[in-house]
From TrEMBL:
Pfam family, one: Beta_helix
SUPFAM superfamilies (alphabetical): Pectin lyase-like
Bilayer-spanning residue ranges: none
Organismal lineage: Bacteria, Bacillati, Actinomycetota, Actinomycetes, Pseudonocardiales
InterPro entries named in the record: Beta_helix, PbH1, Pectin_lyas_fold, Pectin_lyase_fold/virulence
Species: Actinokineospora guangxiensis
Residues of the signal peptide: none
Designated name of the protein: Right-handed parallel beta-helix repeat-containing protein
Gene3D superfamilies from the UniProt entry: Single-stranded right-handed beta-helix, Pectin lyase-like
Residues annotated as domain Right handed beta helix: 59-233
């Protein structure tokens, strides 16, 4: 099935009457939210050339889908998630933009074999620009993530009642993760990243991940705008204390990680290979 618009900014979907789509409840969302596009237990879906604006749930919500291709799709100001892909595989998100969501701009959740490509996308104004949540076999390439609390967050954590997770065999390459300074987390249910720990100033965080390659990225100019449980722009750490795992067998090579505060790198070096990176040069004056 193919849903084809005239192009993002030209064909715009906005909320109408809320209808029951039969899809499972959206994670971290209140009841009776609406979504622009939903796909549940189907295969071979293509969506192209649309702007999805102002929905109370997600712009795109896909659950247990095999073969989803999103091209030139813009999620603009959808309340909870921008593009949220859960327990699905064979995923392509190309040339898309996601901004202004409470949690992730583009999120993979519990996709144990995602075989996902997130390529040539832009994410801004979200708690997490790209969120790889208990998902494996994801490739994040040439993504521009700026103005979020965290540019890219990769997390292995257990949640009550949710499937077992893990983040393994992923790639983050040739991305610009810059200027992420929003503050997320806290007890206010309307806050960015509500109910989560405080986060801010993060370019890339890899928590409890294994066999992830980080190659040729630019992680620069990230400065916290509020408190953060992480003390640097690039963080590698364990999630074993909250039901995840240690990070292991990860490679970080040919990246520029500089001009960030309070630090450029905070890394658990156990099982971490870091070579040929430029780290710690000062941010240029503007």
């Amino acid at each position: 099935m193919r849903l084809l618009g005239a192009g993002s900014g030209k064909t715009v979907l906005t909320p109408g009457a809320v209808q029951d789509s039969g899809i499972p409840a959206l994670h971290d969302a209140p009841a009776a939210v609406d979504h622009a596009i939903t796909a549940h237990a189907v295969s071979d879906i293509a969506v192209e050339g649309l702007t999805l604006r102002g929905f109370s749930g997600a712009g795109v919500y896909a659950h247990t889908v095999t073969g989803l291709r999103l091209t030139d799709v813009e999620s603009d100001g959808n309340r909870v998630w921008g593009i949220y892909l859960r327990e699905s595989t064979a995923l392509e998100v190309t040339g898309c933009r996601a901004s202004g969501s409470q949690y992730g701009g583009i999120a993979l959740a519990f996709c144990s074999a995602a075989e996902a490509d997130i390529v040539d996308c832009e994410v801004t104004g979200n708690a997490f620009g790209v969120f790889v949540d208990n998902s494996s076999r994801a490739r994040v390439r040439r993504v521009r993530s700026h103005g979020n609390a965290a540019g890219v967050l990769m997390l292995h954590q257990t949640y009550p009642g949710e499937p077992e997770g893990g983040v393994t065999d992923c790639l983050v390459a040739d991305c610009d993760l810059t200027g992420n300074s929003l503050a997320a987390g806290g007890d206010d249910p309307d806050a960015l990243g509500a109910a989560g720990p405080p986060m801010s100033g993060i370019g890339l965080a890899m928590i409890g991940v294994q066999r992830v390659a980080v190659v040729g990225n630019r992680i620069t100019g990230n400065h916290p705008g509020g408190p953060s449980v992480m003390g640097a722009a690039f963080v590698v750490g364990s999630s074993a204390d909250f039901g995840g795992s240690a990070s292991a067998d990860n490679t970080v090579e040919w990246n520029t990680i500089s001009g960030n505060t309070p630090a450029d790198v905070q890394a658990d070096e156990s099982g971490l290979r870091m070579v040929n990176n430029v780290i710690g040069e000062p941010e240029e004056a503007t």
